[in-house]
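EI: anyone free to look at a 293-residue chain?
SC: sure, send it
EI:
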Amino acid sequence: MEDTLNRKLPPDLDKLQMLGRLVSGITHEINTPMHYLEHNLSFLKVAFKDLMRLQDCCCKLLQKIQDGEKLDDSVWQELTSIKAEVEPDYLQTEIGKTIEQSIEGIDMVSSIVLALKDFSHRSQREFSMTDINKCVETACTISRHEWKKVADLQLELAGDLPFLFCSRDEVHQVLLNLVVNSAHAVAEKKDSGAYDRGIIRVTTAARGDKVEIRVEDDGAGISEENQKLMFTANFTTKKAGAGTGFGLSLVRHIVENRHNGNISFASEPGKGTAFTVVLPHRQPDRENVGEGV
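SC: here you go
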């Protein structure tokens, strides 16, 4: 196991492998709001054309009034007819909704792109001062397609959380793995008919000279038999191709071997699971810390 965990991978290969497993869902997350944007812009194009027709008719009518021309019934009939076709009251309501929806779509795409940029940034495996709350937000955004249809995600991020001296890339890997695992546990329980929708809660807190990250769900839970094997190398209960490709044995290696932290979990079959990661603010001499992964 140690040979596997401590192998040297080409720079950024691990991140590319992880993104490769998630890329289909991420692409869908971007395509969906882009589809709505395309539809909304088409509607706005037609609405603009109709409103211009009504405006042109009103401007011509105003010009005739200013010129002192006598207006016959045909002029008013034309205006009434165009107004009935255009339905300005309807457009006034729908255009506002369309613009609001479009802005939301742009914001969604922007958040995904920024999260991908943060995650895919040139390797930050080196230890540096890191915003853990931002790491949590990035992992949750990238994995949104995994949990959005099955669970409500609750973030409770400590406002006074200090920056942590750690490897940002590896913290991303840990968080992404735990959030995706929670999403799958909720989906499993939902598919069994136990409920319609679950909850995933991610919290951060300062604990003296340490930072605590907790990922909790009310999903299917872990059987007592599997609980004994959770951190065993190559152990998985998932189908081939599912998950991030980074098992809990690697997660524990990152937390405990690379960061001198601790990872633990509590689970009750049928009721849910909570993983708790505790990382210290300070690290010993980096030369004494395993450089695997």
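EI: Residues 113 and 267 are 34 Å apart (CA to CA).
SC: 👍
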